[in-house]
Design goal:
heterodimer; A: 333 residues; mainly alpha; ABC transporter involved in vitamin B12 uptake, BtuC; 14 helices; 76% helix; globular; B: 280 residues; alpha/beta; Rossmann fold; 2 domains; four-stranded parallel sheet; 10 strands
């Protein structure tokens, strides 16, 4: 019998891990449930409390974790390919901080209390505005360096406006609310939240997937890709739009979650290679694995309720990343 | 069934109050300012859980809050505790209230008032929701009497400026402006046309130079690196030489609540007695 290809085994392993963590996510929480309870809760039992806990509270949280984690993984992989820089992640082009700024404005002025969709709309709107500025930059100068520097500028601008809102918060609670929101959370989110952002996210995924083919051609150099007929401007614009749509919409509901976009592509490259297209889905799976895993840990740890998911992903991701950097230091030179 | 057993075990673990037959609604408060309303009005047996901020230095009823459990603000936890009603002033996770309402839990939302009179209206509303209208009315009457007493006192005439550790000050239109005026002082920011909350400027301080600097929240330890940075400025220190500093414990000022009247009385008595802070 022919041995299974390495990638098939890797896909299988990722899938099993993801399924296991997803089950744990449905099981862990304030109410102690067995796996049996989880299944009865999911597929109908006549016990309304159990059904509410599993279907209305834990399932949306799991699905949001899978979708947002996947988005961050994909966005990280696309940006690392575009910038040919292993340190790139959604924060780099200023999308995260712009989306966060939109949300903070809504929180600061108290608009969040008026309508549920004020927060996501403001976050997506700000991400799109920042993205339009970046596209203008790309149209003017196609260089990757200019794009990174423009991203850094946008990032600083949005971060300083966010800091201004924090500075002017009238009391410690307004300050805390904004700080906590910025640290990210998956809890208290419903299927309605997910439905609201899903169209933007799926559209973003589609654009990013379409960009993987030209991105693959740029792996060697932009000149080589150009000689192969790749439109570099269009590729960059596609990645910017894709990241802004999917990450902007994610941040709108969960707050800022760092490190997932940076780490996920690195986790899967040793198994799936460096082709942006072949690591597209594995990066999404790894991102989802990290985010849902971090969420489970928050719920399992004693006093974990005080921990925010953005803090947890960084706590988990940073040591891993440090190990990865040391382990692969030769290849990175 | 096993799940239900586990859930009831959790309720005991969280210290949920058993249901009493007196029909009084049992309540969970979601944020620090709603904690104060609950702690002011509810009987012990009505309070299931309070927010994580309920025992903080800036909680007016911190001492009473000690005996009640605290929650982490997740919908599942609150659902399991089975409250008759949940109280929110709109702070905290904006998704939580939406989720609780979706789950069919009654949420009473008061918002944060801008005047002490509006705070008294909220007190009445929450008193009715908690089935404690008598307590709410008594507290309202007491506050109204204190308000009257303060208003009948002659104005002190000095000008004052409020500042928090992060350098926030207030113009007109906030409960803190009302507190400063109730203390018999003139709010310099409002006199200069300032409205709402704004950023404190050393330059403005030196230019307008108030007689009194009112400070608060410096005991709150909210991790603000900017704390008192402006006070270290040589120009500010020179200007501070003939400015008196009145520090008010943050428990009086952290929520726009009826007890801001007590804060105003405290500011007034400190100014009258000349009990000022030696150094900011």
């Amino acid at each position: 019998m022919k041995p299974l290809p390495k990638t098939t085994i890797a896909y299988g392993g990722l899938f099993i891990l993801l399924a296991f963590v997803s089950l744990l996510s449905l099981k862990a929480g304030p109410a102690t449930l067995s796996f049996g309870d989880v299944f009865t809760g999911l597929f109908g039992s006549g016990d309304p409390l159990l059904e509410t806990i599993v279907r209305d509270l834990r399932l949306p949280q799991l699905l949001l974790g899978l979708v947002v984690g996947g988005t961050l993984g994909i966005a990280g992989a696309s940006l690392q390919a575009l910038f040919k820089n292993p340190l790139a992640e959604p924060g780099v082009i200023g999308v995260s901080s712009s989306a966060a700024l939109g949300a903070v404005i809504v929180l600061y002025f108290g608009f969040a209390g008026f309508t549920d969709i004020a927060l996501p709309l403001a976050a997506i709107g700000m991400a799109l505005l920042a993205m339009s500025l970046l596209i203008l930059v790309v149209l003017w100068d196609v260089s990757v360096l200019t794009l990174i520097l423009a991203g850094v500028a946008l990032n600083s601008f949005a971060a300083s406006l966010t800091a201004l809102a924090l500075n002017l918060s009238p009391n410690p609670f307004a300050f805390n609310d904004i700080m906590f929101w910025l640290m990210g959370s998956l809890s208290n989110r419903s299927l309605a939240d997910l439905t609201l952002i899903l169209p933007f996210i799926v559209l973003g995924w589609g654009v990013l997937f379409a960009a993987t083919r030209p991105l693959k051609a740029t792996v060697l150099s932009d000149e080589a890709a150009h000689s192969l007929g790749v439109n570099l401007k269009l590729t960059k614009i596609m990645v910017i739009i894709g990241v802004a749509l999917s990450v902007g919409a994610s941040i709108a509901v969960t707050g800022v979650i760092g490190f997932v976009g940076l780490v996920a592509p690195h986790m899967v490259r040793p198994l799936f290679g460096h082709d942006p297209r072949s690591i597209f889905i594995p990066s999404a799976m790894a991102g989802a694995l990290i985010l849902v895993g971090a969420d489970v840990l928050i719920r399992i740890l004693p006093h974990g309720g005080n921990l925010r998911i953005g803090v947890m992903t960084a706590l988990l991701g940073a040591p891993f990343f440090l190990y990865y950097v040391i382990a692969t230091r030769r290849a990175m030179r | 069934m096993k799940a239900l057993l586990a859930i009831s075990g959790l309720l005991v673990a969280l210290g949920a109050a058993p249901a009493f037959g007196d029909g009084l609604p049992r309540v969970i408060s979601l944020d620090s300012c709603s904690d104060q309303l609950v702690l002011a009005l509810a009987e012990d047996r009505q309070i299931i859980a309070l927010s994580q901020d309920s025992r903080g230095a800036f909680s007016y009823y911190a001492a009473r809050a000690e005996k009640f459990p605290q929650h982490f603000g997740t919908a599942e936890e609150i659902l399991l505790l089975g409250p008759d009603l949940v109280l929110s002033t709109g702070a905290g996770d904006p998704g939580l209230v939406t989720m609780l309402e979706r789950l069919g839990i009654r949420v009473v939302k008061t918002g944060l008032p801008n005047t002490i009179e509006d705070a008294l209206d909220d007190l009445g509303e929450v008193g009715a929701a908690l089935d404690q209208p008598g307590k709410a009315a008594a507290l309202s009457q007491k506050t109204e009497a204190e308000l009257q007493a303060l208003r009948q006192k002659p104005a002190l005439g000095q000008s004052a400026l409020y500042v928090s550790p992060s350098g926030v000050t207030t113009g007109s239109g906030t409960f803190l402006h009302q507190t400063i005026e109730l203390a018999g002082l003139k709010n310099l920011m409002a006199e200069e046309g300032g409205q709402g909350w704004s950023s404190f400027k050393v330059e403005a301080f030196i230019k307008f130079k108030p007689d009194i600097l009112i400070t608060s929240f410096f005991n709150a330890r909210i991790g603000n690196a900017e704390s008192w940075r402006f006070a270290a400025h040589p120009a500010m220190q020179a200007a501070m030489a003939d400015v008196s500093v009145v520090d008010i414990p943050s428990r009086y000022l952290s929520c726009p609540a009826w007890y801001a009247v007590e804060g105003a009385a405290l500011i007034r008595s400190k100014v009258e007695e000349g009990t000022f802070e030696t150094t900011p």
